[in-house]
Amino acid sequence: MKITGLLLMPAGWFIVLAALVLLRAFLAQDLFIAAGIGVEILGLVLFTRSHLMAKRGNE
Amino acid sequence: MSPQAPPAMSEVSQAFCILFIFLLPLALAGLALINTGLSRLRSAAHSMMATLCVVGVAAAAYFVTGFAWEGYPGLASHTLSIFGKEWSWLGAGRFFLRGVPLDGSCASLATLLQLLSVGLAAVIPLGAAAERWRLRACCLSTALLAGITYPLFAHWVWGGGWLANLGSNYGLGLGFLDAGGSSTIHAVGGLTALSIVWLLGPRRGKYNLEGMPAALPGHNTVLVLFGCLLALVGWMGLNAAGSILFAGVPPGRTVLVAANTLLSAAGAVLAAAAITRYRFGKPDASLSANGWVCGLVASSAGCAFVPPAAALLIGLVAGALVTFTVAWMEAHLGLDDPAGAVSVHALGGIWGILAVGLFPRTAALAAVPSMASPAMAPSGQMLAQIVGVATLVGFVLPFTYSLNWLLNRFYPQRIPPEEERQGADLYELGAGAYPEFMTHTDEFSQW
Fold first, then answer.
1. Using an 8 Å Cβ cutoff, are B403 and B149 in contact?
2. Mean pLDDT, to the nearest integer, of B209-226?
3. Using CA atoms, how far apart are residues B136 and B318, in angstroms rounded to an integer?
């Protein structure tokens, strides 16, 4: 879960960059940037949960 | 590579800029006092010693590789051409500041400013990892931050990189704007602090077997509050110098910058004091101090761009944000961050970045050539700021975590458990901060 989370964060960032480079229509660009940020947040949540579970395991 | 003529600067601007840069060590001193005051007695000397070492290592690492990789607008840089647009992704200067004339030019003043501001970014994780981070590990981690992470991101924002050029390349407002370093200094420092806290884990005794956090109050509230006042002076210098060097603001406009900095801090501390008064019956000094610094952090990005009323509002939101997130992160995310550095610097910095896109630019700045852009659409500016935040979360956080994870594999960063119980002062320095003090609490036997 930790590695998945760690990889999802840059994956979301690449979606944001791709939206900037490839899309010209404002709506499509905005939507793809929002989707990229959503993927980043998902990665962050997964990564945080993996640390939380590791901490509980240590206790 | 794309060498162009660096921007020129009048002698008056140079003089003001140097004066503002000389105030910056006060921000370092302020943060050092806050970090020390919020840590326990047994690690107070270690905290101050670590600050000195970290500032030294940061300056040295920035001298070796930092400025070469960061660069400055107009200096040479590595670029990629993507669908006809130039993406400048790394400075192409020479190591050890070779080729940078230290003569009062813009690039030389930016170098001086950042020899200090990179230290400010490096001091931030010390507060989050207090009492359990080895001194040598602090220094090694700082070398990675100051030598690699900071210059890379700072090039994108302040060195004429792709984030700064989002406006000219893709029509997103004026490109990513950050005059005083909410992103480059504070969000980068705060996200590094988050990585370190994840890697080190909480202090012994912070959480009980059910995972409930215990209060481990700092040892000197007076140091913390005095640190806040020192930080204000340093921040005014940082924001003013940054506005002149990175936003092209004339020296006269730094009055607005200083007023915005103060108003943001004022709004934040009042919001934090009022909220803690409402929640706990009395204002909480350490959370109010966190609010004050969060207000300063949030003010940095937009200090040269927003009107004073907006600065006050930015501060009010920052104060509220830090009050709720410090406790929430501790209780729900298991983050033991004695100085609240993640909330204050990472979240405060991100809020400051977004605030630039939320509020309109002050009319006074229409006279500033670099800020005058009648075609600027408010939504475009907000999108540029959002792309900057996405870069912090999507690139800087995993990158800095990976670097520190690798470092931790080769050199364990945490103080061993038994030595942590004794305190970092005794373990690392061989003596406590206050050897003649009588300790009447059971602090030294507490886990």
1. yes
2. 91
3. 34
Quote the number of domains for chain A.
1
Token code pair at residue B304: 């040269």
Q: What is the DSSP letter of B441?
A: S
Q: Which of B202, B207, B391 sits opposite A13 (nearest CB)?
A: B391
CB-CB under 8 Å, A58 with B394:
no
| Mutation for testing the A interface, residue in B89, B386, B408 having most A CBs under 10 Å | B386
Q: What is the DSSP letter of B212?
A: P
Report the Cα B304 to chain-centroid distance in Å: 18
Residue B374: pLDDT above 70? no
Question: Position B187: which residue type?
Answer: A
Domain limits at A22? Answer: 2-58
- The helices-and-strands tally (H runs, E runs) of chain A is 2, 0
* pTM for the predicted model, two decimal places: 0.94
Interface of B to A at Cβ within 8 Å reads 82-83, 85, 166, 170, 198, 201-202, 207, 209, 211, 333-334, 379, 383, 386-387, 389-391, 393-395, 397-398, 401-402
What average pLDDT score do residues B193-208 get? Answer: 93
